[in-house]
Amino acid sequence: MLLSRIASVGAGTVFVLLTARHLGPAGRGNIALAFTLAWATTSISDLGTSTSGRIKLLRSDSDVSQADVLSLTFALVPLQAALAVVAVVVVSAMSVNLSLQFSVAVVALCVATMMYNSAGFVLYGLRRYRDVLLTDVASAALQIVVLTCLLVGGQLTTTSAVTAMAAGSTVGAAVLVGRSGAFPSRTPDRLTRHWRELIIEGLLPMAGSIAMFVGLRLDRLVLAIAVGSHSLGLFTIALAVPEALRVLPKAVGQVIADRGRSGIDPVGTARRHCRLFIVGHCAVLTVAAALGWVLLPVVFGEGFSSARDVLVIVTVAEAVLSIHLMDQALLVAFGRPQGIGVPQVVGALVTVGLTLTMIPRWGMNGAAWACLFGYSALALSSTVWTSHELKRVKP
Questions:
Q1: Which of 178, 199, 247, 393 is the most buried (most CB within 10 A)?
Q2: Are 122 and 51 within 8 A, CB to CB?
Q3: What's the CA gap between 155 and 148, in Å, rounded?
Q4: Which residues contact residue 44 at a Cβ distance below 8 angstroms, ignoring those fewer than 6 apart?
């Protein structure tokens, strides 16, 4: 699982490097905006069913199958497409002028992102980690090859870059669906019989997912609209260093969640593993921030040098965020997914207030400090709520 996430981060790093050096801060900002819209719409149209579906598939006593989850995902694709169109129109109307070609590419990316995310969660629920790893690697390789060809041929633009990423995710989603073994013999009526259950149990995780988007990515939208794509491009490059390492808490959290959900680790053992990981992760982030300060203008170009102004702040924020990610894994591990959304909503409310107040006034620096204070509120509320929820778990 960790290798799968490392492959994704590696491809993302190459993607950022190629597009940033060739397209500059403004072009990089437009691409970051596309991915922000993709995750915004996915967090809504998914209805939380990727989380509820994975939890059901991990349970040995559940009669929900991969076909039930994936059929619901396919049924939600039109909703995702409609939300993507609305999002593009709204953003275009709020001072960020998006061309028709770029807008179509963004809509395609939104749909592909939802499909790839949901299919990956299904295979995680089936404990088919190797299949996800191989698909991630193959999809990443395809995207890098296409981007390189576009660059060599002089055709690399924001639109072609987003289209390439959408194509890679679409192919990856198709492969994952095929590897899941779904739909061999189910009739339509049997495919829909668990939809209501999956949606109901996914509502609170969906609220948490939306809240997490607000907490983690709303600043990008506000920065693009209030200040411009150039500042967004600089900000996302500063975030590239700590966010690349977010692969570690997510991967470790996935393992902790699966081991707890499967009854392998008790609560005490899982919590100890979380604490040990957070300490180690802080040490890794410290080294990464020091290296990033030195190498950032060398790797991405002098045009991105001012991104170092906020690098330390966003790195500290990332360390704080890892506390929440570990708490979230514990809630999934011990059957309390309904508690996931509560601290995320609290953190999101704080982040929204800070983001809307600080970014218009202080731009990129305001975004960085809002990020740190918002993540701190998220981590604090998450720790308190997780302790409350885990007290209800039977030893």
A1: 247
A2: no
A3: 10
A4: 83, 206, 210
Structure tokens that stand for 87 in this block: 């999002």
Residue 137, token pair as written in the block: 């690697």
Given a contact cutoff of 8 angstroms between Cβ atoms, the answer to whether 208 and 345 are in contact is: yes
Q: What is the DSSP string of 348-370?
A: HHHHHHHHHHHHHHHHHHHHHHH
- Compute the distance between CA of residue 21 and CA of residue 28 in angstroms, rounded to an integer: 9
DSSP letters for 213-254: HHHHHHHHHHHHHHT-HHHHHHHHHHHHHHHHTTHHHHHHHH
Rg (CA), the chain: 20
In whole angstroms, give the CA distance from residue 288 to residue 370.
21
- What digits encode the pLDDT tens for the residues 17-71? 888 888 888 888 889 899 999 989 998 998 988 888 888 887 777 778 888 888 8
The dihedral over CA atoms of 49, 52, 53, 55, expressed in degrees to the nearest 10, equals 160
Let me know: does 249 contact 281? Beta carbons within 8 Å. yes
- Best CA proximity match to 55, nearest among 205, 247, 271, 273: 205
**Whole-prediction pTM value?**
0.78
Classify residue 155 as exposed, middle or buried by CB count within 10 Å of its CB (0-12, 13-18, 19+): exposed
8 Å CB contact between 68 and 194: yes
